[in-house]
Amino acid sequence: MRGLWTVTKRELRGYLTSPVAYVLVAVFLMVSGYFFYNLLWWFHTQSMAQSQNPYYVQQLNINRFVYEPFLQNVSVILLLIFPLLTMRLWAEEKRGKTDELLLTSPVSTASLVGGKFLGAIFILLTLILFLQVFTLFGFLYSRPEPVPLLLGYGGLFCMGLAFIAIGLFTSTLTENQMVAASLSFGILLLLWVLSWGAEGASPFLRELLTYLSFFEHYKDMPRGVFNIIDPVYYLSVTLFFLCLGRRVIESRRWR
User: Along the 255 residues of the chain, how does pLDDT read in single tens digits?
Assistant: First the structure.
């Protein structure tokens, strides 16, 4: 356990001293803010335009027209930036030859993988925490339903865990950070769009592609619909790629 926390603190220091992390967090907040502003402005405009129509006003739900598309847009932004946030996790160790020190240290492989994973989770939690500013703004001026918001942010966290695990795995394969980021982005994008090819497939293949798609497991969460299969899917993907990353590191340790 001591080795796990040692690696975790080391990763946190690496993120906190890296300008790349600050730039990516700033870009994330700017793009997220842009989407939120436009969605909120459209909602406000529609409310004012239809203020004389009670029936239409009742249909304007801030969760449906603002937070649901906002959180779905945020999930795409996370898909784009997490390959860049995770590309350094092990590739940087290889490039700087510090991986040999880690591999010959008394820290177990599980602690090495887990420590780097926990360090990246800190960044994920930080991003989700910053998003609460937009949520607080909604509660100050409207009455959004809390359950869809909780499920939406919970889904972002579960999805983010899978993003981190995939990025960590691809980072163990190469010492080039951009190659690691490209591999991670390619895997994430493939898992995101798998359901797009399900329409013309056989029933079994359609069901399989739909189940494996990242988007299909998240789209209902911001709507307040919870299915235990969705978080189980993300956690399964997370564990699978963490195990793959651990195996790659172990293979280097015993060479």
Answer: 667 888 888 888 888 888 888 999 999 999 999 999 999 888 878 777 666 666 555 566 788 888 999 999 999 999 999 999 998 888 887 787 777 777 777 778 888 888 999 999 999 999 999 999 988 888 877 788 899 999 999 999 999 999 999 999 999 998 889 999 999 999 999 999 887 776 766 777 878 888 888 888 998 999 989 999 999 999 999 999 999 999 988 887 665
Which amino acid is residue 85, in one-letter code? Answer: L
- Cα distance from N-terminal residue to C-terminal residue, the chain: 25
With CA atoms as reference, report the closest residue to 218 among 158, 144, 128: 158
Q: Map out the domains of the chain as residue ranges.
A: 2-253
Cα-Cα-Cα-Cα dihedral sign, residues 39, 44, 47, 50: negative
Per the listing, tokens 């015993």 go with 254
160, 82 contact by CB (below 8 A):
yes
Please tell me the chain's helix, strand, coil percentages from 3-state DSSP, rounded to the nearest 5. Answer: 85, 0, 15
The 8-class DSSP code of residue 241 comes to H
Q: Which own/partner contact pairs does 82-85 have at CB distance under 8 Å and 24+ positions apart?
A: 82/160, 82/163, 82/164, 82/167, 82/184, 82/188, 83/163, 83/167, 83/170, 83/180, 83/181, 83/182, 83/184, 83/185, 83/188, 84/20, 84/24, 84/181, 85/20, 85/21, 85/24, 85/120, 85/123, 85/167
